[in-house]
Amino acid sequence: QVQLVESGGGLVQAGGSLRLSCAASGRTLSSYAMGWFRQAPGKEREFVGAVSRSGDMTYYADAVKGRFTISRDNAKNTVYLQMNSLKPEDTAVYYCAGSISYSGSHNPDNYHYWGQGTQVTVSS
Q1: Alpha-carbon Rg of the chain, whole angstroms?
Q2: What's the pLDDT band for 56 if we cut at 50, 70, 90?
Q3: What pLDDT is attached to residue 32?
Q4: Residue 101 has pLDDT above 90, yes or no
Q5: Which residues pair with 22 in a beta bridge?
Q6: CA 97, CA 50: separation in Å to the nearest integer?
Q7: Which of 10, 78, 105, 123 falls 20 to 30 Å from 96 in CA-CA distance?
Q8: Strand 10-13 relative to strand 118-123: parallel, antiparallel, unpaired?
Q9: How does residue 28 score in pLDDT terms, banded at 50, 70 and 90?
Q10: ∠ at Cα 27 (23, 29), nearest 5°?
């Protein structure tokens, strides 16, 4: 079983950038396809992006395509979410998640392990 811990959230002005990290412990990260999700107050958790086990394939929601980039460093057991050109509507709690079965899934039910989340707030 893997434990996931996100970091890097914070307050940023619109147009700014943040890089989120998701550090894994307990089991090697390369065993899992990884995803990022976010949840704003009063809204359902939504897919942001995902990366395959090896990192050769990435997937993005239309809302973040061209602005966000997912990468992973399996040697460091860490997944990253680089967020550029941030908008106020990107404000949410961001979660990383690991899946033992699915790669690139948009469905949160297909992910087996979740971090505790990190808050991202984008001011206008």
Answers
A1: 13
A2: very high
A3: 95
A4: no
A5: 6, 79
A6: 9
A7: 123
A8: parallel
A9: confident
A10: 50
CB 17 within 8 A of CB 91: no
Is the CB of residue 83 less than 8 Å from the CB of residue 18?
Answer: yes
**pLDDT score at 119:** 98
Spatial neighbors of 5 by CB under 8 A, at least 6 apart, are: 22, 23, 25, 115, 116
**Residue 26's pLDDT band (cuts 50, 70, 90):** confident
d(CA 2, CA 28): 8
Determine phi and psi for 38, rounding to 5 degrees: -145, 155
Can you tell me whether residue 25 is helix, strand or coil?
A: strand
Token pair for 56: 């050769």
Contacts of 106 (CB under 8 A, 6+ apart): 47, 50, 59, 61
